Amino acid sequence: MQMIKTLIMGAGAVGAAGVAYVAVPGGDSEQSIATAPAGYEICLKGDLSLFAGVSAKCFSRNELVALRDRQVVDTEGNPVAVSMSHPTDMSVAAQDCRTCRDYGEMTFDGWYALSSRDMRREAYFVRACGTLAALFNARPAEESFFKEGSPEAEEVAALATAMKFGEMGSGDDIHVEKAQGAVWRISSGDMTWRIHEIANADFDNDGVEEVMAFTSGAPQGGTASFYDAGLIEKDTAGAALSFTPISYGRDKAAGAGL
């Protein structure tokens, strides 16, 4: 199964215009996935805040595999657990899912989040495990159209307008600044939005570099918020930026990689 971009209709994908499907190595499909050179490491620009205690550094593929057993956390850094129900027998007690290993094994076997509360919490696992699988499958890019590895402020402003999060205003109303650690701060009216660049690589096996990023935002003084993980893409020198959310395939057996 080659890594492709497609629309996934499943948990965590509803409402997304496009989702970067991350192929998971293992089983019969493993040989068909283009893999990174031996010894390839991917270097993070910032902390991997989807898991407990993962600081920015360069990771080998074995180190990324080990993160399957790291506790998934919420946007405040608090541990998250999802109560998963048995797929066919309601008399079987629900079990808690806390790591990507848990999530991969249980969803492959058909366990699912039953309550609306657990469905909301499951979104943290979709993002965290999808991001981890994307990092694992990353390759060195053959081409890059990002200046010094990052988009430019004008491009980020145009991307913010195109994404239309919350009540973002027109391009003339959007203000963009880049802070230390490859973090963009975007504001428009009473909305504040941040883009945290995480790593640069070829994540979708097209030969062109993408920037993995986390996005978050909320109205100033409000309680509503949004949060996502995905790829900032620029496929040619003159192309506008696009953002493709990352999801996580549920069709892989336990122990079949990430």
Structure explained in plain terms:
The strands form 4 sheets. The protein has a 6-stranded antiparallel beta sheet, with helices on both faces. It has a 3-stranded antiparallel beta sheet with strand order 6-5-7. The chain has a two-stranded antiparallel sheet with strand order 1-2. 36% of the residues are buried. Residues 1-33 and 252-257 have low confidence and may be disordered. The chain has 258 residues and is of the alpha+beta class. The chain has one domain. It is built from 4 helices and 13 strands. It is globular, with a radius of gyration of 18 Å. The chain has helices at residues 61-66, 100-108, 116-137, 153-163, and strands at 5-6, 19-20, 42-43, 58-59, 82-85, 95-97, 112-113, 175-179, 183-188, 191-201, 210-219, 226-233, 242-245. Strand 11 (210-219) and strand 12 form a beta hairpin.
How would you summarize this macromolecular structure in one to three sentences?
Helix content is 19%, strand content 24%. With 258 residues, it is α+β, with helices and mostly antiparallel strands.
Ordered list of secondary-structure elements with their pairings:
Blueprint: E1 5-6, E2 19-20, E3 42-43, E4 58-59, H1 61-66, E5 82-85, E6 95-97, H2 100-108, E7 112-113, H3 116-137, H4 153-163, E8 175-179, E9 183-188, E10 191-201, E11 210-219, E12 226-233, E13 242-245
Antiparallel strand pairs: 1-2, 3-4, 5-6, 5-7, 8-9, 9-10, 10-11, 11-12, 12-13
